[in-house]
Amino acid sequence: MRLAVISDIHGNLPALEAVLSDLAAQAAPDAVWVLGDLVAFCPWPSETLARLREIPHADFLRGNTDRYLTTGRRPPTPARSPEEWAAMPDILAFREANFSWTVARLSYDDYRFLADLPERLEMREVPNYGCLLAVHATPTDDETNIYPETPDEEVRRHLENVAARLLLYGHTHRPLERYVGGTLLVNPGSVGLPLDGDPRPSYALLDFNGGDCAVTIRRVPYDREAVIAELERVAHPARAWTEHIIREARPPQN
Questions:
Q1: What DSSP string runs through 218-249?
Q2: Which sequence spans correspond to the domains of the chain?
Q3: Which of 39, 108, 233, 241 is the least crowded, having the fewest Cβ atoms under 10 Å away?
Q4: Which residues have a Cβ under 8 Å from the Cβ of 29 and sit 6 or more positions away?
Q5: Is 0.85 surpassed by the pTM of this model?
């Protein structure tokens, strides 16, 4: 069995098209899992969602930004100093402008699709392998980061009630293949906004054979300047932040 896994597209339609073109050139997957954060931050939210929904044999789960868009909730923004508190009005205005811009470009059908997404995907029995579980961030929440450098003991706290042999997740925008105890963790990285220093979109192919799982992380070039030009053309409220990530594949320094 072959499973393709993509995550964190964030409305970056050219990056998604590059990934899907590369995927079409590989041996066809039996299933495609999409691990959330589908439309926020880049300039094609509705178009990206329409393209995702055309993928054959695809299943989707909800990411934290999908939840923000459909519920009106927003990420926590703690102030850790008087200076951060003084900057809070600008932080909140920026955050709200970005999500409002995206919501204004989604149809009601887009909203219903995002709102109805599950929090996890599961394949209970891959022949000769076992159970697969997919979440956006961790099995207990959609915002905690499990980075490549996160200590094993910290990761284990998120795996306490996980019976799956393989845990798939996104959220960090950093590819990962790592064992913690007897559980294989795989993060395909981000299609739309990589944050590992390599600006090329990434996705994962998992091949199950004879009780083993072979993981391939693929990187795909695409026209980043086209995305930056469109961010400017539409005057996207998060364009400076997003442009930095598209160019540098690193978070902006506050």
A1: EE----HHHHHHHHHHTT-TTHHHHHHHHHHS
A2: 2-120+190-248
A3: 108
A4: 2, 3, 4, 23, 57, 205
A5: yes
Q: Any idea what DSSP says for residue 21?
A: H
Q: What separation in angstroms does the CA of 107 have from each of 15, 70, 100? A: 22, 12, 13
Q: Can you give the three-state secondary structure of 117-147, one letter per residue?
A: CCCEEEEEEECCCEEEEEECCCCCCCCCCCC
- Mean pLDDT split into 10-residue runs, the chain, 254 residues: 98 98 97 98 98 97 98 91 95 94 98 98 92 97 96 94 95 97 96 98 96 97 98 97 97 81
Distances from the Cα of 47 to the Cα of 14, 39, 44, 64, angstroms: 11, 9, 5, 20
Q: Which two tokens stand for residue 100?
A: 């409002």
Q: Say which CATH topology domain 2-120+190-248 has.
A: Purple Acid Phosphatase; chain A, domain 2 (3.60.21)
Tell me if residue 43 falls in helix, strand or coil: coil
Q: What tokens does 221 get?
A: 């070039």
Extract the tokens encoding 84: 């951060």
Provide the sign of the torsion angle of the four alpha carbons 168, 174, 178, 180, taken in this order: negative
Residue 39 carries which DSSP code?
Answer: S
Can you name the residues that pair with 214 across neighbouring β-strands? 207
For residue 178, the model assigns a pLDDT of 97
